[in-house]
Amino acid sequence: MAISKICGIETEYGIAAFGEFEGNPVGASSLLVNVYATAQYRSRTDWDFEDETPGSDARGFLRQGSMAPLVETHLVNAVLTNGARLYVDHAHPEYSSPECSSALEAVVWDRAGEVIVTKATELANEFLGPRGKIICYKNNSDRKGNSYGCHENYLMDRSVPFPKIIQELVPFFISRQIIAGAGKVGQENSGNSDVEFQISQRADFFEEVVGLETTIKRPIINTRDEPHAHSDRYRRLHVIIGDANMSETSTFLKLGTTAFALAMIEDSKSPKHDRTPKSPIEALRRVSQDPTLSYKIEMADGSKLSALDLQEEWLSCAVEYFERYGGEAVGGDESASQIIRSWERVLGGLRRDILTLSKELDWVAKYALFSAYKDRHGLTWDSPKLAAMDLQFHDLREEKSLAKRVGFKSLVTSEQVLSAEKDPPLTTRAYFRGMCLKKWPEAIVSANWDSLLFDLGEESLQRVPMLDPLKGTEKMVGTLLKECNEPRELLDKLGA
Asked: Same domain for 270 and 386?
């Protein structure tokens, strides 16, 4: 049986700085992280880079000319009490959510990231006063040829052959953008000036089918093999091809459908036909550039299917899989049922009339809003006004964000999101990390996904390993954490 698809999202936020930090995005991003951590915590816990191995490749080799992602240990990092990480990565503020046990849970902590970055921006602007201003965007492109990522992570069974993962997921990810795309006016990197509107912001920037890189020669399937868990049992599938979503439905389906796909791959219950595209990169871009959803992808066997056809095949298999195996691998039966119902409704809407989903999918909302504005004012798609609106759609400021005006359907409550700013999920090891940081911040020197490093005032530091993402939950250690008054007492009981 497939293992639980523990998941999370890493979001690099777009940043614009004026005044003192103009032309210095690293400095502006560092200010955001510093002011938030200083204001929220009496003691800041830094990230522990001890176990970072970005050069490990799931294929067991590093292709000539490949470059492992750079680990920027010198930039600002902070570990938060909600189990997340807030740091500076490639000149952007990045929020990495804690490990979550379901797609809906991940939506809550992803939204909490928006709250955190918004508060950090407000604090930074208060600090700067008349000396400058910082604005943050939850998007993937600066419209100057630069893209920044929204990466997903999923727990997988190490025994599944990686070539099988590649073969199954390439067509899945190419087609998934019709659900999870953030929408984009025009194009930046594909050389096609006739493109008016795209489904995905990221499709322009992918050049390889498989590879280790994340910032150059971006691949559809990333091979970074850094499990942050027992390496003999688990794999962390690092997905770099998704967009950053403002819509909760898009985020939910992005994660939920992928969790289902991975569970089906592990149990060999995915679509039976080989749907390998003849030209995967071309197919990725052509699907993105066709909001009518009529483009047919030519497969290696000569058949032709649309992205919608492919998604419907995966949905059909997911329904059969759920009926036979239940939903334990994707967060439980209730979670699985919600994913399938939403998947069915969205694909049905895309098949009948995409505009029926203007309150649910990012790209459809943007397409509907911008098309109406364009027609009302007699503009063409290459108008600078539409380009400016594209950026404003993703503005985190409540009074400026066009996405906030759309009235997207909510899947979670504001109370859940505000709680998730400070509190970790109850259902993964993030609970242990977050609660230890809340209770004994001065005693924790550093932390990462799979360990905490304590300073108990003794001769040596004490590392507590957390190599199983499914352990350290509230159910497992909640009582223990409440009973212990000092970290030494906690470590003694854990050792016993």
From this structure: yes
Nearest residue to 236 via CA among 10, 459, 46: 10
Domain of 473 in residue numbering reads as 429-495
Strand spans (E) along 176-292: 184-185, 197-198, 206-211, 218-222, 234-239
**pLDDT over threshold 80, residue 67:** no
Going by their DSSP bridges, the two strands 444-448 and 46-47 should be labelled as parallel
Asked if residue 340 and residue 287 are part of one domain, the reply reads yes
Cα 408 from Cα 414, distance rounded (Å): 14
Tell me how far apart the alpha carbons of residues 442 and 435 are, in angstroms, rounded to a whole number. Answer: 13
- Residue 89 bears catalytic tag: yes
- Name the active-site residue from 48, 57, 89, 450: 89
Q: Which tops the pLDDT comparison, 213 or 138?
A: 138
Q: Is residue 2 part of a domain?
A: no
In a domain, 421, yes or no: no
Q: What is the pLDDT of residues 145-193, one digit of tens each?
A: 889 999 999 999 999 999 999 999 999 999 999 999 999 999 987 566 6
Number of domains in the chain: 2
d(CA 307, CA 176): 8
How do 451-454 and 462-465 pair as beta strands?
A: antiparallel
